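Reminder: ligand-aware prediction takes two inputs, not one.
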Amino acid sequence: MNAVSKRPFTVFVEGNIGSGKTTFLEHFCQFEDITLLTEPVEEWRNLNGWNLLDLMYKDPTKWAMAFQSYVSLTMLDMHCKLTPTPVKLMERSLYSARYCFVEQMMRNGTLHPAQFAVLDEWFRFIHHNIPIAADLIVYLKATPAVAYERIKKRARSEEQCVPLSYLESLHKLHEDWLVHRTLGECPAPVLVLDADLDLSQITEEYKKSEHQILRHAVDVVMR
Ligand SMILES: Cc1cc2cn([C@H]3C[C@H](O)[C@@H](CO)O3)c(=O)nc2[nH]1
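Here is what comes back for the chain with Pyrrolo-dC:
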């Protein structure tokens, strides 16, 4: 009788550009009972030699559709990845793809309504036909000004042209989706963390999520 493998406790780590998701995920590297799936930015920067991220930021109206189509494919790949561990932490999801980034690009006219309709249809089809598990959403809530400063400091070349106004509208979409619940569907309970805290204080903030996450990682003795 082969053991029926329970699906892993799945966490989406959501937040604006520069909200500190990578730093948050690195905090959980220490636990071997957790599989970390970080955002496949390197795949977006090199698809058969094409840097779709750069193309999108350089000419959004021309490349947003191709970029968001590919982002959705890579996110679906992450959702479908089988993990050997009882806990799976994903950076972002098909939900933030649809309700934050695609929504933002439709509202600011970067995506033509017909292009938006195609991306929305893909999202609906996947959402209704492929089980995309979520047990908890950790929302790293950062004020746009703090996120903006971090982006400048991180200096990812493609992002240097991202204006504060873009972060402000993305922030509002995250708030509507995860806090006010006025946009789209929220697939799991949301734990909001204060992502404005700087590195020294933020580890304390992370510990708030440790309990909710690690209690599903069988071999970790709680501190
Ligand atoms: C799901 C999803 C993630 C994601 C990231 N991005 C951008 C924001 C950042 O500049 C970079 C890495 O997150 O990619 C985007 O435009 N659309 C996205 N959709």
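The chain is about 50% helix and 10% strand. The first helix runs from residue 21 to 27. We will return to this case in the review session.
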